[in-house]
Design brief:
Arc Repressor Mutant, subunit A; four-stranded antiparallel sheet; 3 domains; alpha+beta; binds zinc ion; four-stranded mixed sheet
Length: about 375
């Protein structure tokens, strides 16, 4: 893959492609590392008595995941912005057509230039798409509009949404965010705390379970007990595990320390190694809490809906923590009635997540911890 990082590079690739450039197309594709744009150039090549059309791949625009995290000023898909900018210059310079069927968000269902006669327009956003053949998806809209419709329906129907458990390490007023997961069992320390946590849940709309110093020292003992058993098995096993030779050399390894010993582990393909790695991480977290006199706090939701979650996010993130009732009603007009919005706001006030003063609706400390 040739990664194009400037218009000069693109320009060079167009010139090197040979023939007369007619269409420059930008299409999305994705792999495990994320979405990227690939650029094809359609050229006319003159032969002795005829003209031949050819399509040539000339490069890829890929910026990677990291850039999205920098700050809010970067558009969510800067690849698209770059492609649009360069495509415009290229079309002026060469008189070619710049074809970019999904210039707002990634979509791999858009037709290439040569198959655009097979496309329909998305009924919601008017983007050209090749209708999906999946029996589970609507055929008249694109996938991203399908997700938007589903999201709106979840809000409209107040579908239950209690996912999202947040773990903090806390001392006085200092909260260190340790992790977010959909369910408790996704945390490495989950097997050692599940019973205690379950017993302490009160079934309030927002449940906060605290694990104090004594709890944490008990957790530490339990983790060490399991780790002792696991490293005993590790020591008696062959290392690295019995994989084919050419595969063995490519497996990534890393080391962990436990009770003064070093253990070499492989990153993938071995469940026991993964467990040892996870437990050593969990132990580190617990040791840090013990040495710094921290406790753990775990936040749960009970009886939340997509509607509650959406309103909280709108107040907390979109409106920076403070807005008016009218603005929330406006945000969800067409999806929720005024009464539904008011009821949601009241419900969240009762849960301790919103504060209402006249027309003003504010997020609370709790909202920030819960989202
Ligand atoms: Zn659409």
């Amino acid at each position: 893959m040739i990664n194009i990082t400037s218009f000069e590079m693109l320009d060079n690739a167009i010139r090197l492609a040979g023939g007369k450039p007619v269409v420059l197309e930008a299409l999305w594709d994705g792999d495990t590392a994320g979405w990227y744009l690939y650029l094809n150039l359609h050229v006319k090549v003159k032969k002795l008595f005829s003209t031949k059309k050819e399509v040539k791949y000339i490069g890829t625009i890929r910026l990677g995941q990291d850039i999205r995290l920098f700050n809010g000023t970067v558009p969510p898909w800067p690849e698209a912005e770059l492609a649009k900018e360069w495509g415009k210059i290229a079309s002026e310079k060469y008189g070619l057509i710049f074809y970019f069927p999904s210039d707002k968000e990634p979509d791999s269902d858009c037709p290439g230039w040569d198959s655009r006669h097979l496309a329909i327009q998305c009924a919601d956003c008017a983007k050209m798409i090749i209708p999906t053949d999946s029996p589970y998806l609507p055929k008249d809209i694109c996938y991203s509009c399908h997700l938007k419709r589903e999201f709106r329906n979840n809000i409209k129907n107040a579908e239950p949404y209690d996912d999202g458990i947040i773990l903090y390490m806390v001392k006085d007023k200092a909260y260190h965010h340790l992790g977010y997961s959909s369910f408790l069992d996704e945390f490495a320390i989950a097997p050692f705390i599940a019973d205690t946590v379950q017993a302490r849940r009160k079934g309030k709309q927002v449940d906060i379970v605290t694990l104090n110093e004594l709890d944490i020292s008990i957790i530490k003992g339990k983790i060490e007990q399991v780790l002792d058993e696991k490293v005993a098995v590790y020591k008696s096993a062959e290392f690295p595990p019995n994989f084919p030779e050419n595969f063995k050399s490519r497996i990534k390894r890393y080391t962990v320390q436990y009770k003064g010993n070093t253990y070499e582990l492989i990153e993938q393909f071995d469940k026991e190694h993964a467990k040892i790695g996870g437990l050593v991480q969990a132990l580190k977290m617990v040791d840090k809490a013990i040495s710094g006199n921290y406790c753990f706090k775990i936040y749960f939701r009970n009886g939340f809906t997509y509607r509650d979650d959406a309103v909280l996010r709108f107040v907390n993130f979109v409106s920076n923590g403070s807005t008016s009732l009218a603005a929330i009603e406006q945000q969800y007009s067409g999806t929720l009635t005024k009464t539904e919005v008011q009821d949601t706001v009241k419900k969240m006030e009762k849960a301790g997540c919103l504060k209402i003063e006249g027309e003003i609706v504010q997020a609370t400390d709790l909202t920030g911890k819960l989202l």
